[in-house]
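Z., the sequence and structure:
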Amino acid sequence: QFVEVRVVFPREQLTSLAGAQLRSGSRLDRILDEEAAFAAADAADRARERWFRDNLPWLVAPALLLAFVPAGVVAAWVYRRHGREPGVGAGPRYVFEPPGDEPPALIAALVASKQARATGDAFTATLFDLIRRGYFSALPATTVKETWGGLRSEDISDLVVSPRRRDAPSSSGSKRRWPRR
């Protein structure tokens, strides 16, 4: 910020003109015109600010439209192009036959063919399938889990899985033959 002061007085009131720049003509009219132009510019700035404040609600709505409508159009285009799941036909209402004898790991590999490794669910399903077929036995067990340095304990149900001997009978009472490789 600055303050400017202009003082106009007749030349005759000076006792010496040493160091002064002398110019011919009256400078008062030029100074008054310049000050009037400054005042008019200041009044125009104040009027522009007042108009902006008075019309702010009407200016915000188009600005929001200009900001969000193109963004919404781009988002809709991206969603239509990349975001939707491909359409699949309606599945059967009821599957009438039980699952086949295929191992669960094979089914998991066929269903999720993009995965390079078997998942934990596929491993668990395969283990239970081998228990069902009689290659492993599973006995229920309870494990005590201690936490907080033995201050708290919790009983956890678990299974003890062990391989069957080749000549041991399966849970159904018949001998199970091991597959040959």
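The longest helix spans residues 56-83. The chain has a mean pLDDT of 81.

Let me know what you think.
H.
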